[in-house]
Design goal:
Blueprint (H helix, E strand, L loop, with lengths): L1 H71 L7 H21 L5
Length: about 100
Amino acid sequence: MDRLRTKLEQAAGVNARVSKAIEDDADALIARESEILNRKTAAFAPHHQALDERSKELDRFEDSLQIVENAASPLKSIGDSEQQNLVDKMLEDAVAKAVEAPASH
């Protein structure tokens, strides 16, 4: 009978011990949250930086295209092929500037 009583006393404490163990693990996870968030931020930072730089390059390229578009509009007095050659040259120059710009940083 004593052995049975000991077993029942042990069994009565199982719920409290298991609940405590689960709570301890949950607390450990909660405590690690800021560490994991910091690591996530650090892991993504170079990728955000690369995309930001590509976006700036695209902005410069769009600006260059806008300059070419604006420059091509008033060329009504010269022939179509001359106008097209001039526009093509301006476009090539604008693209070259936009592509070379990141290398100069």
